[in-house]
Amino acid sequence: MADPVNTDERKCAHQKCTCMVTGGKRYCSDDCEDAADSDPTSECTCGHPGCK
Ligand SMILES: [Zn+2]
Ligand SMILES: [Zn+2]
Question: Which ligand gives the minimal distance to the CA of 35?
């Protein structure tokens, strides 16, 4: 059975990234985490469809 409380979805913490993240993580990928750490305003390089 699906748990309706377990649909915790938020935007990736990278400023320029528009991906959604689930599972309590802050970034959609390691790329975003590294990029946000070194240069928060850099373009997202996660490579996910619809995100650049
Ligand atoms: Zn992205
Ligand atoms: Zn991201």
Answer: 2
Is the residue at 1 inside a domain?
A: no
Number of folded domains that form the chain? 1
Q: Does residue 22 lie within any of the structural domains? A: yes
- Taking the centre of ligand 2 as the mean of its atom positions, its distance from the CA of residue 11, in whole angstroms, is 8
pLDDT digits over 21-48, tens only?
A: 999 999 999 999 999 999 989 889 899 9
Q: Is residue 37 part of a domain?
A: yes
- CA pair distance 23, 25, nearest whole angstrom: 6
- What's the pTM? 0.76
What residues are neighbours of ligand 1 (ion), with CB under 5 Å? 17, 19, 44, 46, 51
